[in-house]
Amino acid sequence: MKLLLSGDLHLGRSSTRLPSEAQELARTINAWQRLVEAAIREGVSAVLLSGDIVDHSNRFWESIGPLKEGILKLHAAGIRTLAVSGNHDADVLPGLSRLLPPGAFTLLGADGTWQRETLYDQGAPVLHVDGWSFPSSHVHTDPTLSYPSHTDIDGLPVLAMVHGDPGVADSTYAPLSLSRLQSLPVSAWLLGHIHRPSLTPGTPWVLMPGSPQPLDPGEPGPHHAWITDLQSGQLSPPSPFCPSPLLYRSITLLVQPDDPPSREWITLRLQQKVDADPSPGMQVLRLRLHGYTRDPEALRACIHAIEEWTTPDLAVESVIFDVHPELNLEEIAKAGPVPALLCQALDSPPPDLMKRLNTLRDSLQRQTEFRDKTLPPIETQDLLLSEKIEQALVSTLRHLS
Ligand SMILES: [Mn+2]
Fold first, then answer.
1. Which pLDDT band, with edges at 50, 70 and 90, does 58 fall under?
2. Rounded distance from Cα 390 to ligand 1 centre (Å)
3. Do 144 and 199 lie in a common domain?
4. Whole-prediction pTM value?
5. Are 177 and 98 part of one and the same domain?
6. pLDDT (tens digit, 9 = 90+) per residue, 283-295?
7. 329 CA distance to ligand 1 middle (Å)
């Protein structure tokens, strides 16, 4: 028996910074419709949603139609939808059940008290789903403190759902603690609130499904729903399911003094970089140009054209300009022995620095807790890859030129 797990759909919102041609893709309602179709195709038994399904009460009327329609479609295919509300939809989800036929949609724990619903497979009970919903938009206490101790232990696995803020003890959005979650007698946790997906393995595993579609460039990386399989009384660790066709990515292009300061050159390099790490669907890029150029003015003049550049599956959302005039190291080195040493350090760090770093590495290796780990020696190569060291040296040298 398969279950689809998701949350933080924020229906009514649109993903930001997409070109106007891609506005349809931007709508979270379309992500919900894709999820419904995928659930039916996959033959799941239930769809579990962990809150912030509707973005806000003032988006209720534009999102409730498509939400209802999706739940009805799932219901017609024999799939139940179970949900808890989050801080965004605390006041709107309770009304939804009344608009739907019995059994299509279950909101668990609507008044802020834990509620249990049991799922059946061919007439036999197979899984308890426990849930707690935000009673209002702010909650200052950990909702799991009121998690009931069930006396009627029947050996069935339990999947518990709650929307909240893990690891933020003073959060006003239901503070949660990972260690407390994993200490409670359940088989799995489905959380909501954080839009970046993450899975904490263990017994129970704890899943923050993340938004099935990223909402802005602050949510880079893959987004998707999840699927778990219940077999012989065991819930499998969840796997990614129904990937979002929209991906926000940050890309850094290294600019070297010999590179021509032109839009064509930058977009060609960008396209090569994207092709080397392909992803289906639309990619919205935050581009950082980093390095040295002989003509900063000409390069800076290209930024607008680069931001306007789009292909059917690529768009540049913004350009961060971190390119500096080429340094004349030969000239700077002539200023004295210390500037000369700093210039040299750009290519090879001073030998005593390497020696000191490796002494630290050796003493670390001797500590009991790291004895079973083999720490590799620190090589000059490792340091040269470190952008921060380079930046520190360059910013000093720039003052000398
Ligand atoms: Mn939330």
1. low
2. 40
3. yes
4. 0.85
5. yes
6. 999 999 998 899 9
7. 52
Do residue 114 and residue 231 come from a single domain? Answer: yes
Residue 41 phi/psi, 5° resolution? -60, -40
Task: Tell me which residue has tokens 């909402």.
Answer: 215
C-beta neighbour count of 252 within 10 angstroms: 15
Distance CA 265, CA 270 (A): 9
In DSSP terms, which residues pair with 236 in a beta bridge?
Answer: none
Q: How far is the CA of 29 from the centre of ligand 1 (A)?
A: 18
Are both 213 and 275 inside the same structural domain? no
Instruction: Tell me: do 131 and 20 sit in the same domain.
Output: yes
Q: How far is the CA of 52 from the centre of ligand 1 (A)?
A: 5
Q: Are residues 288 and 382 in the same domain?
A: no
Q: Among 300, 325, 350, identify where a domain stops.
A: 325
Report how far ligand 1's centroid is from the alpha carbon of 312 (Å).
32
Cβ(332)–Cβ(364) below 8 Å: no
Say if residue 62 is in the same domain as residue 163.
yes
Q: Are 80 and 106 in contact (CB under 8 A)?
A: yes
Residue span of the structural domain in which 143 resides:
2-243
**pLDDT tens-digit readout, 325-376:** 888 888 888 888 888 888 888 878 778 888 898 898 888 888 887 777 788 8
- Confidence category of residue 275, pLDDT binned at 50, 70, 90: very high
Q: How many CB atoms lie within 10 A of CB 32?
A: 24
CATH of the domain at 217: 3.60.21.10
Quote the number of domains for the chain. 3
Burial class of residue 83 in the structure, from the number of CB atoms within 10 Å of its CB (0-12 exposed, 13-18 middle, 19+ buried):
buried
Please tell me whether residues 136 and 188 are part of one structural domain: yes
Supply the DSSP symbol for 169.
Answer: T
Q: How far apart are CA 67 and CA 52, in angstroms?
A: 12
Tell me how far the alpha carbon of residue 53 lies from the centroid of ligand 1, in angstroms. Answer: 9
Percent of the chain with pLDDT over 90: 71
